[in-house]
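Board notes (copied after class):
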Amino acid sequence: MKDEIESLLKRSIDLHVHAAPDIPERRMDALETTRAAYEAGMAGFVLKSPNYLTSPLTYTLSQMYPGLEIYGSISLNSSVGGINPEAVATAAQLGTKVVWMPTISAEFYLSKTNSGKGLSILDKSEKLTDDTIQVIDIAQANDMVLASGCISPLETMKLFEAAKDSGIKKMIVTHPEELLEDQVKDLTTLGVYMEYSFLSCMPSTAKISPVNLLAQILKAGIERCIVTTAFGQPANPPPSEGMRMAIATLLDAGMSPKNISLLVKDNPSGLLS
């Protein structure tokens, strides 16, 4: 089993990695995180921060570790002006690959802890805001990956219906566990990928068990799923080790190496190509 784990880890891609510098405390800085991914033989990862555009940092890191692709991203939280078309256009000019809708500033996210009013991609009539439509258009024009962040199920459905109509082909639901089964089915039919992060299985979050993780992936359809770590927190191992753990957990749960390869190599690679 050890050889299978290492073989699957080689050339894997993690589309959701956190590292310092950041506002939340992180286990490792971006250089340490990159070095660990390089030494593990990974193909690459997406560096995500809830607070700033990561592309200038990932550009520099990619120059330091040839052969390892490190992709920049932007999360449309208050620190970048919220759902800010100008910020997304600038990010696109800098080669940014992934744009997340609001995460820590999302109205839906903040409502869970009664932390005040946040950002919504919908207006009072539950239609997409003009800024959201502009962001979709910019992402489409620049072949960016559009991810849902921490918005509500209703917002998620409306976002990707509009994104599909605009011609976007690279779309990810960041938290599919928030969706109903029928919603997942409708979205995968639109071509949206479901991101299942191994962080959900860790004791610090304990949202789902490994068995339930496998069940949700199989129900959604492996061809429309990716597995990420979303690691970077002080209590968790380095993201590269998190990917190794995720692979080992899926193997132990009975998933075939071929299907795991789809989740951590082929599908992520297709989204970033």
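Comment from the instructor: DSSP finds eleven helices and nine strands in the chain. The two ends are 30 Å apart (CA to CA).
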